[in-house]
Amino acid sequence: MLFVWVSLWSVGLILLLADPRSSVNRWLSAVAMFGGAGALAATLDNVFVPYVHERRPDGQLEQMLYRVQGIASLSSYYGMPYAFLKFAMAYRPAAIATSLRRAATYMLLLPVAGFLIFTPPYTEYSPITFTVVIWWAVPCMLAGAALILFGRSVGGDLSHSRWLIILAVLPPVLFTMVMSYVLPVLGWRGMWRYNVWFVGIGVAVFLIGLFTYGFLGIRVLIDRRRLDSTLRAVTSGTSILHHAIKNDIGKMRLFTDKMATYAIHSGQDELLEDIRVVQNASRHIQEMIGRVHRRTEDLIVRPTEVDLGDLVRETLKPFELRSDHVRLSVNVAEGWICRLDQAQVGEALGNLIGNALEAMNREGRLFVTMRENKRELTVEVRDTGPGMDRAQASKALEPFYTTKGGRETSFGLGLPYTYYVMRKHGGTLHIRSKVGVGTRVIMTFPKRSVKAERVDANRLAGRGVDANG
């Protein structure tokens, strides 16, 4: 049980530290912590208490360890069903009304208070009154499992997260339910010892998922910090490079202009032609480094009130003439006024649409969808192009990485720029791609960050906004 204790508490700490503001992460961390508390109680009972008893029998340390064992055991038996159901309610919030979720927070604790007050106290052989507690614990755990399996998500899963949750969480929890609550009622005590196998499988799935697809946004958080660090370095480097090259190009122009004047007056046409080549090359260099600098410079956000749906439709208009052989499907949620930088968000979205059209070689289907859920607004651009494999998709946001065959005009900065714009607005950028199927890119705007407000058609007209786009 030492392995279970250490593993579960490590997983709990990873989840909690990765995103402490996420209620999903907090409650799943609590599930792991309460499960680990049961393993701690078993470790104390089997290892530490006997060790202390042999060396210091009837000592205060042994009594203290026994009390810690009792607290850990009770917290595991009562805490795990409660935390698991709360996790499921946070993971699938759309399946339950908000008022019911709030009431459940307190209603679910009332039976626990009754168990602690009216049932016999803790003993090593009978830590809880199983014949009573089972009627609370098992329904909680089954309800949580049903929510995870069949509950409706607020915005749809963007990755393999749902299957990772099902494989990593449900088997250990349901197996624990049977071994720790159901079988003791039937007279089979101590079966919790076999929980270690399913807990081990769950931890293994968690670790595999963490380093492949990501788990509850943890890998996204790690990648985000890495990209932020990379972009800061690129911004600093290109700023220095742009300044140095701009100064040197200025000197080249000054002296080539003098040389050109001399060549004209002396009638040296061949020399003049060579000078023109040098001047054109210097201008080209300056244009290239200027374009890189504009895409990597530190962005200054100038937010104004913008109808996000109108912005999506306006951004699409210039591309409609370039997509004669592309079937365009647009579905936009109406009436969402947000505070954002219209120019930068428009350019960022234009990058995604342009990339999708290029990927399909101007032939296929393009889907542009704007959705809203409880906390976020999302704009998704999906194409039916060739798609990317996992290695390409994982590098897509890295500056200067491109799959466009080394075209002269492609610097691999469109997606990093879009990512940077989203970060400046407190949002995120997700890329999901599959070879032979296509690519989905999702821009996620937290409503709180962009101060999103839903307004009806009358209020839109009063604000001078065209409700029909």
Overall radius of gyration: 30 Å
Q: Number of DSSP strands?
A: 8
Mean pLDDT equals 77
Helical stretch tally: 16
Topology (elements, then pairings):
Layout: H1 2-18, H2 23-55, H3 60-91, H4 98-107, H5 109-118, H6 130-150, H7 161-185, H8 195-212, H9 218-266, H10 269-296, E1 304-307, H11 308-320, E2 325-332, E3 336-340, H12 342-359, E4 363-372, E5 376-383, H13 390-395, H14 414-424, E6 428-434, E7 438-446, H15 447-450, E8 453-454, H16 457-462
Helix pairs in contact: 1-2, 1-8, 2-3, 3-6, 6-7, 7-8, 9-10, 11-12, 12-14
Structure description:
The chain is of the alpha+beta class. The protein has three domains: 2-216, Rhopdopsin 7-helix transmembrane proteins (Up-down Bundle), CATH 1.20.1070; 223-296; 304-462, Histidine kinase-like ATPase, C-terminal domain (Heat Shock Protein 90, 2-Layer Sandwich). 64% of the residues lie in helices and 11% in strands. Strand 4 and strand 5 (376-383) form a beta hairpin. Helix 7 (161-185) packs antiparallel against helix 8 (195-212). The protein is elongated. This is histidine kinase. It comes from Cohnella soli.
List the keywords.
single chain; 469 residues; alpha+beta; Rhopdopsin 7-helix transmembrane proteins; Heat Shock Protein 90; 3 domains; five-stranded mixed sheet; three-stranded antiparallel sheet; 16 helices; 8 strands; 64% helix
